[in-house]
Structure prediction request, 646 residues.
Amino acid sequence: MKKIAGKLIILILAVLSLSLGASALESTSTDDGHAAVISSLDDLVAAIEAAPDGGTVYLSGTIDIYTSTEIGSLDKTVTLCGFPESPAIISISDSMPDGECAYFRNLIFSGDATTGIVVKQHGGSTYFDTVSFRNASNSAEDSVCTISAGTATFRNCIFEESRGINGSHIYADVLSNVNINDCKFFTGIASQSGGCIYSLGNLIIRNSSFTNSSAEEFGGAIYAAGTLQIVSSEFSGGYAQNGGHIFSDTDEHSQIISCTMSGSQAGQNGGSIYANGGTELSDCSITNNFANQSGGGVWGRQNLHVESSRIFHNTSGLSGADICAGPGFSIADSAQDYLAMYEQELHEGNWNTAAWYMDLEGARYSAETVTEKYITPNTTPEGFVCIVFALSYEAPIVDSPEQPAPPPTVDDENDEEVPSENENTPTPPEADDMIPSEDADDQVHESPDFDINRPQHPNTPEHEPPESTTPQHGEDAVPAILLHCGSAKIDVDSLEEFCKILPQYISANALITRESAAGFLYGLCGSPGIELQHDFFSDIGDSPYRGAINFLADSGVFFGCGDGQFAPSENLTQAQMITILARFTDRKEIDLVNIDAASHWAEASIKTAVASNWIKDAPIDLQKSVTFGDFIEVLTAIIQGHNDSD
Prediction:
């Protein structure tokens, strides 16, 4: 269960909005107490050396790097910020000699609406080790890192919320070589292509993760038009018109190996992957993605090769729920390979068949309408193939025996036939013995400006595995639901993990907006799937938390601020926070002594919170903006109340 809770934390980090104010940071300063603003490389190196661990250095203008340089330290972390109204640029010159490198270590590049700090590499080599980019670009056009030429390596880096035209986090041009290892990318949003990364050169990614990124056109997380290799990486959530996670637009051979991809959407084709050229998928898991047209999991124009990969439980509006592929498409695995690959699911469902089926527009596969099998291994030299993978039960075909079967024995006393001891023809499971589980296509991850009615899952088997009645213990135990309002459910493990991990990333003094509060709560609920028919509020269309807000409004957690408005960017007040959380539990009554809430619109919720020991009956400014520390304090009290009741 800790693994599940850990994934929830990743989802929550993906939808939160970080804004580090200057007042929350310790900065270098001049003798007169004012913040020192750095505008040269020598001053920058000296300022970082003088800064304490956790300190901040403010930069202004362009800082040029022409030769090998080390920026940052192994024994402390320093934040770099652009000076307000004067964004900073760290520029690596194209005249940097071969073999020399600019090293960046243990740094935080931090920006907000008025400050920004970006990297522009024109040549040479750079190495970023343990660097966090927190909303570093204050422009909706500039990428955080622009690699025009040269080699850039990122190791153990974190890229948080950013917006750009192409590649909000990284833009890499034709003459670039980009290597990414052990990095995390959150909420990259591109107005055109490549939500996180837009690469025209050579791109290699290993052991990294991409969460809830989106692009209006191609590649929700990655757009690659050069060579591409992605190994042992995870993609969750996301949206693009084509290629919800990845759009590979190259004639070069692309490799995607040992990757997990789920929860993305495409407005047209390729719910997870859209590949124009030769692409190899090996040892991958691609599930619970959706395309409005074809290729709910993968759309390949030509020379798509699939081997040892689990591509199933994806959906599409027209055809090819799992794969839609053109000439040169090949699958290397046999029927026996799939029996081994899906052994656990087959056993749990009492199924005996794992196979591909044709899934064409006007002739969709379903449990009731079984279409022609697509036999593997197979190579399709011409035309398009649209297929879906399904698990099912097939009664075996028994050939006529060479010798006549022995006559049935007869019970002389009852004059009834008794089946032969050798009779072993299996019987399909009875429908009444099977309980269908939740449909896999309910896992929808909303992204900005995407709203669609998704069709019923076309490749859900007729019978799902029976629901276990065995008590669960240990790591696999189901956690107790602690807060519940409509479809919104928060369990104790998720709350504990939230309160333990997120304070490491977010300052206790950071203010919470109404939309970021929705992001926190939606993540705590496990980012459940929703099918939007309309927005509940008229002012959330441009919010990256739109899906979260709609889900919580539909569940009865949010009611808005009147006149059909939600006011997503306004700070959450104490009264609003208490009211929202109180909707997750039963109303309680108590006489308030020290909180003046008589006739206040939040009076009932305040009484519930005090009676539940979430807050103390002490004077409180109900209109005061909520900090992240305030939010954690109340959630911790909720956990403590649960533990005390046990």
Summary: The CA atoms of residues 432 and 585 lie 36 Å apart. The mean pLDDT is 81.
